[in-house]
Design brief:
525 residues; alpha+beta; Rossmann fold; Alpha-Beta Plaits; 8-stranded antiparallel sheet; 7-stranded mixed sheet; globular; binds guanosine-5',3'-tetraphosphate; GTPase activity
Length: 525
């Protein structure tokens, strides 16, 4: 393939995640984006899947039992000369480390905020990971068709709670029953809201309202809009594309996903303001997407997507070169060569075979147990490893042991495999070698228990611990007397020291008492 064609393919790719708190409207927005891309013909498809009405054989048993999605799926579609990959971040009870890890595989993020609620807990956690990676984050404030918080208050909240500059690109005119539309500060057009009918645009320079404006927006609201625009122009942040691309400023848009209002203009701006796939650090330096050989890394392993086959799917983010089905690759960790005969791409939970893929794309590889989270795979050429994925702090902990001591070998095998897949974190206490599992979400424990029984025929016993905060720490900084049962010292599977704090109070007390001990929230090598 010519370098030029490759460059076009890379430049047109956008790989992003939608981060939000449950119920903010992520599913609804995703659905509207899929409609834009022509991937679905009617609204309701994605929601039906979520509510369990969507028939598919691809859900794990536990997913079916609970009617929720355990795993993140990937949606791919084309829109306006772009090839889009949306990587879903599972929320609700299925919030897990996979949700965090997904964010290591994307180049940008859309943050959906419920305008009636503002910033919520899960949004904040996911935002922090995006911020750490310095990726562009665009904000969509949803549910303007409902009475919500004051837009200025919402901006303040973004700046104060998330500690990021904001720039409202669109601005709402009224809300709830009095919602009339939004004003776009870039295009200088008002998008008029008509409930279930299609919206339309009228020009407005922010000063003189034409008859067309006055026919569609109440005069009182036009005056209010003028004041608010000049306030934003004078007192607000300046816009800077560089800051957006560096993840230092979030452009903000207002709309209503359910009414499909403001979604298209938001997405058009999103495509303009975000970057195509970016270079990644590796053991041989930066690997650009244009690098000649295929390379990618595994950010997620999903078991039993199809219970009939008991197979595993490793999700690969393509970082450079061209992926072709059936190609030979080297697994960098073991330097083993393998042929990639089975590969998939995804629309929600249905799979299609993929024959080729390019930087930015996410593909699923059939995995017979060869892969681990963070593995690098490479086509021809020099073998290298991408930098390790960061480790994220679990918040739930449980001591685990096998019920029947005779099954100890199976237990060890199962736990090793599931930990390598990233299903849970495993810690050991230094002297007694107690095994402690760490999870971000409750469901991880349930999946672990279910899989230990189903795949390794082992019954396990959990005893839940009080501890709720984990921080990595340099072992050399730990002194006698610093730790006890409320500040438990454990080691992760790479022998890095971790402190488990019983609660926020104990955590603060420790920080006050030992201000020099550096405590890491996210562990990066
Ligand atoms: P999530 O994926 O972030 O969890 O949110 P989801 O899209 O499922 O939306 C959560 C609820 O909010 C849904 O209502 C959905 O219809 C509603 N919603 C989403 N966007 C908007 C919006 O722009 N305006 C308003 N007013 N509501 C919105 P539900 O009652 O839980 O489900 P359903 O009965 O509508 O299916």
């Amino acid at each position: 393939m010519s370098t030029e064609k490759m460059k076009d393919l890379i430049d047109g790719r956008r790989t992003f995640a939608i981060i939000s708190h449950p119920d903010a409207g992520k599913t609804t927005l995703t659905e509207k984006l899929l409609l834009l891309g022509g991937m679905i013909r009617s609204a309701g498809t994605v929601k039906a899947k979520k509510s369990g009405k969507y028939a598919t054989s691809d859900w794990m048993e536990i997913e079916k039992q609970r009617g929720i999605s355990v795993t993140s799926s990937v949606m791919q579609f084309s829109y306006s000369d772009h090839h889009i990959n949306i990587v879903d971040t599972p929320g609700h009870q299925d919030f897990s480390e996979d949700t965090y890890r997904t964010l290591t595989a994307v180049d940008s993020a859309v943050m959906v905020i419920d305008g009636t609620k503002g910033i919520e807990e899960q949004t904040l956690k996911l935002f922090k990971v995006c911020r750490m990676r310095g990726i562009p984050i665009l904000t969509f404030i949803n549910k303007l068709d409902r009475e919500g918080k004051d837009p200025l208050e919402l901006l303040e909240e973004i700046e104060d709670v998330l500690e990021i500059e904001s720039y409202p690109v669109t601005w709402p005119i009224g809300m709830g029953k009095r919602f009339q539309g939004t004003y776009d500060r870039f295009t200088k057009k008002i998008e008029i809201y008509r409930g279930n009918e299609d919206s339309f645009h009228v020009d407005f320079d922010g000063k003189e309202a034409s008859d067309e404006v006055l026919q569609n927006v109440t005069p009182e609201y036009v005056e209010m809009l003028k004041d608010e625009i000049s306030l934003l122009d004078e007192a607000g942040n300046d816009f800077s594309v560089e800051k957006v691309k560096a993840g230092e400023l979030t452009p903000v848009f207002f709309g209503s996903a359910i009414a499909n209002f403001g979604v298209q203009s938001f997405f058009d701006a999103f495509l303009n303001l975000t970057s195509p796939p970016q270079p990644r650090n590796s053991s041989i330096g930066e690997i650009t997407p244009e690098y000649k050989d295929f390379s990618g890394f595994i950010f997620k392993i999903q078991a039993n997507m199809n219970p009939a086959h008991r197979d595993r799917i490793a999700f690969v983010r393509v970082c450079s070169g061209k992926f072709e089905r059936g190609m030979n690759v080297t697994l960098a960790r073991t330097e083993r060569k393998m042929k990639l005969a089975q590969s998939h791409q995804f629309l929600a939970s249905s799979r299609e075979t993929v024959d080729e893929a390019y930087p930015g794309d996410i593909i699923g590889l059939y995995d017979a147990g060869n892969y681990q989270i963070g593995d690098t795979i490479i086509g021809e050429g020099q073998v290298f490893k991408f930098e390790p994925l960061p480790k994220f702090p679990p918040e739930l902990f449980a001591k685990v042991r096998v019920k029947n001591a005779m099954k100890h070998k199976h237990f060890e095998k199962g736990i090793t495999q599931l930990v390598q897949e990233g299903a849970v974190q495993l810690y050991r206490t230094p002297y007694f070698n107690d095994l402690i599992l760490g999870a971000v979400g409750e469901l991880q424990f349930q999946v672990f228990e279910h899989r230990m029984k189903a795949e390794y025929n082992v019954d396990i016993e959990f005893s839940r611990m009080q501890h709720s905060i984990a921080r990595w720490v340099d072992k050399k900084q730990l002194k006698d007397g610093m730790t006890d049962s409320r500040v438990l010292h454990v080691e992760d599977r790479d022998d890095h020291s971790v402190l488990l704090f019983e609660n926020e109070f104990v955590f603060r007390l420790f920080q006050d008492k030992y201000p020099d001990v550096k405590l890491l929230n996210i562990f990066e090598v």
